[in-house]
């Protein structure tokens, strides 16, 4: 107590010691006295420090079960945790904080595979949690804390179990930030735990996979039809989003992206029908057939990846598109849309569920509503196979950084270059540069840096380019070399590795193709790079050496796009080097599986005594 | 001082205050006195607490540069850090520890992209580090700490800068574990920083990529020839490893894996020549050709992934194999071998470098020698594109867990099932089970769990299987259902999700194919699963529904192998779902790139006013 006194007095807080015994809670008079003492102390701004009165209480019996006994009003007072829980329930406190030397609780013993830290715990989850052996510290271990917390929760008191050594733990809790495990039955916590939603997507995806391509296509057609027949319902929901957005002063371009119209829905339905029609050869396609030996035939076939997590911003039309792609490719799907489109997304999701119900796979696709759930999902590598963020570079970058073990398909940056070689047709060059920069400057495949061969600096070309860009309203920055060459140069670019994403670009001078390639490797993002030249050997050299997803000759960088590449619906553009690179169509949602048919084949048959021989004959796939 | 005194006295340590001024270091007499005072105190086990004598020293001038001035012997005493550095140099201390409220230093300001924590810092690295603005705490900020540390390092004193709030920081430092940044010029730290080695692999890989397939093949042939012509040199090195291993009491199987022989080398050379010969169509293969529009043709071609990090255990023969695969596929490569094969690996690496030198790409492949370097490399997602751990499940699992943003190709577990359907030919079943479990029990594709249709429990089959397994020396565990069925059952398996990896397995009874599939999904690892049945429809159903990399019918699980699948050299077996799945051949080291050739094509040409039309015609790839 003297230590408590010394420490609290540093903050100018007065304390009072209160000692209780179990009996004090059962005897109506002592109980009343206790509660009024506590209320009085609190009203006087005195913090009661409560403990069991060990001098007069018998030690608790270790094997006495925790929990209410019939005819008794409390839990047995085995330790400070149960004492705290009982007191919290008695005074109906707003929050009970139980401090431990561990960070909180996990869904299973933390040393077991698949153990996941629980930020929130609702009493429904009780069955899904396995607790480990009691920790060595005995009755003060986690079991007792958790039982006390649940006991208090059942009596309407929210509880946080956290690590008392964490910096400013109490302040962090009171500011509402995530620390420890929050025991609550508040409705904010989704009724279905995120992990269950993810598991259902796996099961639903497996079900989709076993259907025939026709059944999957039919489901997408159903969804397309619903978009038209339930149009008014969708537009009503969208109207709510638009009202909320405009009343909170959202910018015009965002509003137009958020808005749905009958014609947008019609086009969307049309696009979905195309996805359905072209889906028949996605799953189950034979990529390779090999006769390994007499009677032993191997096939490599395409199958869905499994469970996708797609995170998209504002545009609600992404939802049915992505859902259709997932259904057509037999993948389970978790979707997270932007907050600003919440009403529209919910309405669209209902239609997705309705169409999935026709094939009995309702759970294959679910909508995730909170950011906390996303953070949880990003750690569930056992449930999620691929993450696709669709939106701003910031979104992609943040998802890439947060996801530590689940692959992320996408690109955080699109720093695309156009290199104008000395042998370029300068008219073509001007045309390609204009298109690459000005056709849609916000796109990831727009040009950010123009590289000009130094020989062209003696011609009119540089001035022509600058005039053209100026006319188009493009702000020019210069690279350090260009800047040194000119008497009056545009301001020096802050960084050569920068995505302007607007009517602005950088111009730099290079000595030749090799310097251009080095520049691209040093400052580019491996997205799309272009050479303009009439020298085909040099173009080939450039296309061979530039290590980017897309390398173009005499064509605008704006062609780097799934639709323009003829891939159908675009899943995204990837600058990763494995799985899928560049514009990705529905093929990016597929993987393969090896199917082997034998008679009674054993590996030992192929040993020297086994008598069977390898053939390894490649067979036609059709 | 009273606080210091109170705290040190808790540990029974006596302290003494020593106050100094800058002048005390310049005046030869005071300097001598100071040093002997300090020596005397230390010899008496008294810890000197040293500070500037602020009562008599003028405050330091803020703009006075840190660093030795001509004619002066020390650095200016601006703060405790410079004081500490000067004292450490004066007494030639073994280690100077500078404590801060940050963890140590980074290669660039920690909030910038690509900032990497530096565990070690050698004075050669000085140029490669950018320091940020002085932190708000003024002269006590990191700049001053780093300058003082470098100053001391230049005078032969090693320094650790660490977070003083870290738990038991001093004990951790003294036990030699990694905490904070260690400033040292000791030779233990590789001459070339890991990051530079990785960057060189990228540059070297890009160079390999620009060579012709013939040049790459020739380089592999050169390496193959060197393995034979420099045989004695390799065997000498290997002898040293074997001696060290046997003197440290290494087990026999490990010794045999470690040992190289003339015939092993000959076979190895033969294998390398096969890799060279079959490499011509790896890189630059056209996978897809599309005419997007008149004069605009798109090609998707295979290209190397970039830079691979391959981590392998004991077998030194892996080194030339993996190097040959990387060269043949045009990838840069970083290799980390087992410590026990250090001599052999170095000798083999010399030959790899010798063969790379013939094509001018010496730096494309490098050997990494310390585990610390691996930890560094696992965070360098900008330099490394794919990690391939080849070795035990523990190795793979640990690498998978450590690598947060670089994909890892491999499998941590191989929990393979054989399901014997009620319509199985029981003789075939016995043969396949024996092969799947006993042919090579340590392999990842060996059977771990046998699932038996319940109808077969009324036949002799169960006893026949048990007799056969017993005869082969296989220890049997039973699943919970089998255990309940039998009066005298084998002991219950501790877990149904377990890889025995030895002559041991689990047997469980299932009601039918659906329960078998559920069991496999719940407890399997997605590696290889087998059905034995004469009912082809049921086999097809099983192959469709089981969500594993390999699903076999009437064939042993042991066929899941790159060579047996006819893929040539095996890179690994992957249970991941993206990029490559199942046994992976050299194709797993490749990705694709999109190459577009146009005339002057702009995206705007395809708008309504543009006048150009999409064709999207698929062209033959040959």
TrEMBL record, chains A, B:
The cross-references to Gene3D superfamilies, in alphabetical order and at most eight, read: Acetylglutamate kinase-like, Aldehyde Dehydrogenase, Chain A, domain 1, Aldehyde Dehydrogenase, Chain A, domain 2
Q: Which InterPro entries match?
A: AceGlu_kinase-like_sf, Ald_DH/histidinol_DH, Ald_DH_C, Ald_DH_N, Aldehyde_DH_dom, Asp/Glu/Uridylate_kinase, G-glutamylP_reductase_CS, Glu/AcGlu_kinase
Q: Which GO terms describe its molecular function?
A: ATP binding; glutamate 5-kinase activity; glutamate-5-semialdehyde dehydrogenase activity
Q: Which PROSITE patterns match?
A: GLUTAMATE_5_KINASE (PS00902), PROA (PS01223)
Any Gene Ontology biological process: amino acid biosynthetic process
Its catalytic activity? L-glutamate + ATP = L-glutamyl 5-phosphate + ADP; L-glutamate 5-semialdehyde + phosphate + NADP(+) = L-glutamyl 5-phosphate + NADPH + H(+)
Aspartate/glutamate/uridylate kinase domain residues? 1-163
- Domain named Aldehyde dehydrogenase is located at 228-461
The metabolic or biological pathway listed in the UniProt record of this protein is: Amino-acid biosynthesis; L-proline biosynthesis; L-glutamate 5-semialdehyde from L-glutamate: step 1/2; Amino-acid biosynthesis; L-proline biosynthesis; L-glutamate 5-semialdehyde from L-glutamate: step 2/2
Q: What keywords sit in the KW lines?
A: Amino-acid biosynthesis, ATP-binding, Kinase, Multifunctional enzyme, NADP, Nucleotide-binding, Oxidoreductase, Proline biosynthesis, Transferase
Q: What family classification does the UniProt entry report for this protein?
A: In the N-terminal section; belongs to the glutamate 5-kinase family. In the C-terminal section; belongs to the gamma-glutamyl phosphate reductase family.
Listed NCBIfam families = P5CS, PRK00197.1, proA
HAMAP family per the record?
ProA (MF_00412)
Q: What is this protein called?
A: Glutamate-5-semialdehyde dehydrogenase
Organism, scientific name? Hypothenemus hampei
């Amino acid at each position: 107590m003297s230590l408590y006194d010394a420490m609290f007095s540093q903050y100018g807080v007065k304390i009072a010691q209160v000692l209780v015994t179990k009996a004090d809670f059962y005897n109506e008079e002592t109980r009343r006295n206790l509660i009024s003492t506590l209320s009085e102390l609190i009203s006087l701004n005195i913090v009661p420090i409560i403990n069991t009165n060990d001098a007069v209480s018998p030690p608790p019996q270790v094997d006495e079960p925790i929990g209410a006994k019939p005819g008794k009003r409390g839990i047995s007072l085995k330790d400070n945790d149960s004492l705290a829980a009982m007191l919290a329930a008695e005074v109906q406190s707003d929050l009970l904080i139980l401090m431990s030397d561990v960070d909180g609780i996990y869904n299973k013993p933390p040393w077991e595979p698949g153990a996941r830290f629980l930020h929130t715990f609702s009493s429904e989850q009780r069955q899904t949690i396995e607790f480990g052996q009691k920790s060595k510290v005995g009755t003060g271990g986690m079991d007792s804390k958790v039982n006390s917390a649940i006991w208090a929760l059942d009596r309407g008191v929210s509880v946080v179990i956290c690590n008392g050594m964490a910096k400013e733990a109490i302040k962090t809790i009171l500011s509402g930030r995530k620390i420890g495990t929050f025991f609550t039955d508040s409705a904010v916590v989704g009724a279905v735990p995120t992990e269950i939603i993810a598991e259902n997507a796996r099961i639903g995806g497996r079900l989709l996979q076993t259907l025939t391509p026709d059944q999957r296509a039919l489901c997408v057609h159903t969804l397309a039809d619903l978009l038209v027949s339930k149009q008014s319902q969708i537009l009503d929901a969208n109207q709510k989003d638009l009202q909320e957005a405009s009343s909170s002063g959202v910018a015009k371009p965002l509003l137009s992206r958020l808005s749905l119209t009958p014609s947008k829905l019609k086009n969307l339905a049309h696009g979905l029908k195309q996805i359905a029609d072209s889906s028949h050869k996605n799953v189950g396609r034979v990529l390779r057939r090999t006769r390994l030996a007499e009677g032993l035939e191997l096939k490599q076939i395409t199958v869905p990846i499994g469970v996708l997590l797609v995170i998209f911003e504002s545009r609600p039309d992404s939802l049915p598109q992505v859902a259709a792609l997932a259904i057509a490719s037999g993948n389970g799907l978790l979707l997270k849309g932007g907050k600003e489109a919440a009403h529209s997304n919910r309405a669209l999701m209902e239609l997705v569920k309705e169409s999935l119900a026709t094939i009995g796979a309702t759970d294959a696709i679910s909508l995730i509503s909170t950011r906390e759930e996303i953070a949880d999902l990003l750690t569930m590598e056992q449930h999620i196979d691929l993450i696709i963020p669709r939106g701003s570079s910031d979104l992609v970058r943040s998802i890439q950084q947060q996801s530590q073990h689940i692959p992320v398909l996408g690109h955080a940056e699109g720093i695309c270059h156009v290199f104008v070689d000395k042998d370029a047709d300068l008219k073509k060059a001007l045309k390609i540069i204009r298109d690459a920069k000005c056709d849609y400057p916000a796109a990831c495949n727009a040009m950010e840096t123009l590289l000009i061969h130094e020989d062209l600096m003696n011609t009119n070309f540089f001035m022509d380019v600058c005039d053209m860009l100026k006319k188009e309203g493009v702000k020019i920055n210069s690279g350090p070399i260009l800047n040194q060459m000119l008497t009056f140069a545009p301001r020096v670019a802050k960084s050569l590795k920068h995505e302007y994403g607007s009517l602005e670009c950088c111009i730099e001078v290079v000595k030749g193709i090799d310097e251009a390639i080095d520049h691209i490797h040093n400052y580019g993002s491996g997205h799309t790079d272009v050479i303009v030249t009439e020298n085909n050997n040099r173009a080939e050299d450039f296309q061979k050496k530039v290590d980017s997803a897309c390398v173009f000759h005499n064509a605008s960088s704006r062609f780097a796009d799934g639709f323009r590449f003829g891939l159908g619906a675009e899943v995204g553009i990837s600058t990763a080097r494995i799985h899928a690179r560049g514009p990705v169509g529905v093929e990016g949602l597929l993987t393969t599986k090896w199917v082997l048919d034998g008679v009674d084949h054993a590996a030992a048959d192929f040993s020297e005594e086994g008598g069977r021989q390898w053939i390894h004959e490649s067979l036609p796939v059709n």
